[in-house]
Write a structure and sequence with these properties.
Layout lengths: L5 H13 L7 E4 L12 H11 L5 E4 L11 H17 L3 E5 L5 H19 L4 H7 L2 E6 L9 H12 L5 E5 L1 H4 L5 H10 L3 E6 L5 H4 L8 E4 L18 E3 L7 H12 L3 H22 L7 H15 L19 H13 L11
């Protein structure tokens, strides 16, 4: 067995400082709640985090599912204020989304957020300030553009890694219109110990399946469905999941992972197939909606029932960032799907 490289050793030490209890296997890109006037609903965000905290120990805020590409800087700051307060209280971990279409904008956002966190934590030491706020890193994507070469993506991502903040890199071709090659990701992993996590939502899983040596970078899968086959504990290529469905089905996903850890493969497979069927139906319900993205819309429809229970059909439907609410027929269809799959909660977490 070959000895770990110096970069791999430095990354392991950094991860041990950032996440001393280990890296969670299940992460959630939290949906963003809005009140009737369209402002960040901080009380609802806090309640949702408390509801998920027994099962999810790591959060990406704001991710694509949390409208990270649409939120203004002021809205993001409001969201992070309540998220950091709750995540610190609950002893959870936070990846801050810096989802921008250009590297310079992402770099500026990270710098401003680090300064704000240091000021908020009353600690001028960057790593200490992040730790006191339960922030383990910043999530970025390569810049948007289907015409970008691997070299152009490399230069952009390197410019952020060179700031030396802990970074998670997000493969999201659905938004960026491009995809980092396995060779590029491996090259970044060899050079930058602050590259701590790689998330792939493409569904193609080219990086994880490539066999490239990634030097202890933690790999998480973001594509939904067929959860049993992907984790390293069953000889798959990933260390964990970062799933939009964890907004609603955190307990079930956590149980799949726990079943796999103790080799209850049949139970995990049955639960995975049940969840996959339900989630596929739910995404079908929101396909074609003119506002929001399918990840946010499907999870908002389902979370509506987890928040209000079976009475959710009578509660005002959740608002989207675009200023409209989810249609009533979407809410009713989501409720019917949950009931048919025996996943309707008996009581909502707001009750």
């Amino acid at each position: 067995m070959s000895r770990p490289t110096q970069t791999a050793v430095e990354r392991r030490k950094l991860l041990a400082r950032l996440l001393p209890e280990g890296i969670p296997a299940l992460w959630c890109p939290l949906i963003t709640h809005y009140d009737r006037d369209g402002a960040i609903d901080q009380a609802r965000v806090a309640a949702h985090l408390r509801h998920l905290s027994p099962y999810v120990k790591g959060f990406l805020i704001p991710g694509s599912t949390g409208d990270g590409w649409e939120l203004s800087d002021a809205e993001t700051r409001q969201l992070l204020e309540v998220a950091i307060e709750q995540i610190t209280k609950l002893n959870l971990h936070l990846l801050v989304g810096a989802l921008k279409t250009e590297a310079e904008a992402a770099r500026r956002t990270i710098g401003e957020t680090v300064h704000w966190i240091e000021t908020r934590a009353h600690d001028g030491n960057r790593e200490n300030g992040l730790a006191r706020s339960s922030v383990c890193g910043f999530t970025i994507c390569p810049p948007r553009g289907k015409e970008l070469s691997q070299q152009q993506m490399s230069s952009a991502v390197r410019s952020i890694l060179e700031t030396q903040v802990p970074v998670a890199i997000y493969q999201l071709p659905q938004v960026t219109q491009n995809e980092m090659s396995p060779e590029l990701v491996a090259d970044l992993a060899r050079q930058f110990p602050n590259f701590i996590l790689f998330k792939d939502t493409s569904g193609a899983d080219r990086v994880a399946l490539s066999g490239q040596k990634l030097e202890n970078v933690f790999l998480v899968r973001g594509a939904e469905g067929d959860y049993v086959r992907w984790l390293k504990i069953v000889k798959g290529p990933y260390d964990g999941f970062l799933l939009s469905s964890a907004n609603c089905f955190a307990r079930e996903l956590c149980q799949v992972i726990e079943d796999l850890k103790v080799r209850r493969v049949k139970a995990a497979q049955e639960r995975s197939e049940h969840l996959t069927s339900c989630i596929n139906e739910l995404f079908g319900i929101v396909t074609g909606l003119p506002h929001g993205n399918p990840f946010a819309n499907a999870n908002k429809a389902v979370d509506h029932f987890f928040a209000f229970g079976p009475k959710a059909r009578d509660a005002p439907p959740p608002r989207l960032h675009a200023g409209v609410s989810l249609p009533a027929d979407v809410i009713h269809a989501a409720g019917d799907t949950l009931s048919r799959h025996a996943l309707m909660p008996e009581k909502g977490y707001l009750e």
